[in-house]
Amino acid sequence: MVEKRRVWDLPLRMFHWLLVLNIAASWYTAENGEEYLNVGDRAFAYIEIHFFLGYLALALVAFRIIWGFVGPKHARFSSFLAGPKKFFGYAGTVLRRDAKPSIGHNPLGGWMVALMLAMIGSQAFTGLFMIDSSDIYPAIYHGAVSSDLGSIFGRFHHINFDVLLWVISLHVLAIVFYAVYKRQNLVHPMVTGKKLASMVPEHEAIASSQLLKALIVALICAGGIYAMIKLAPPPAAVEEYY
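Above: the chain sequence. Below: its structure as tokens.
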């Protein structure tokens, strides 16, 4: 059996795939906001579900940010947010098939992670102040801002998501490029958490996924989102933003 060593911890992998599902579901519920999901005797408008997906996105981003400081080695920002010299040095080797694979995120991928976290976090944050186009479902902090600021948040929310789709497409294309051109499968390790021992020196492997620490961080993030919802001001009169 080929020896493998753990690089990606379980909480990080769960975050990654939950975020993928969250973005897909957020897109679908936004595009089909006037439809309903029937659960027993209750019908949930897709736009309502969209708001809850936004809360989940905020919790996921908050978790990843904290995990970037307290998680295992390769999950930490300090391990993959490279400076200019290292960034451009790596960029010059991208087209070389014989370039040494990165153990964790490579410098280009590392900054892509930071960009996507910033964009998704901004997307979820601005969604807290918006109102859907039917004027029926205002977000929980809609009444906390002026109509002008709400309009700005609304425009940003739509434009940012369009740009985010392009960034995600670039991310997927990079994965395909590494798989086809450089013969590096980046998806499989994000599922199993492991890479070949020949690619990962023993001292670079992580010993555990630090599940108890991850649970504590997740509870803190969930508690923060719950408090944010409970502390929201009473709904204000709905105004037209579009």
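The beta strands are 4-6, 36-39, 42-45, 194-196.
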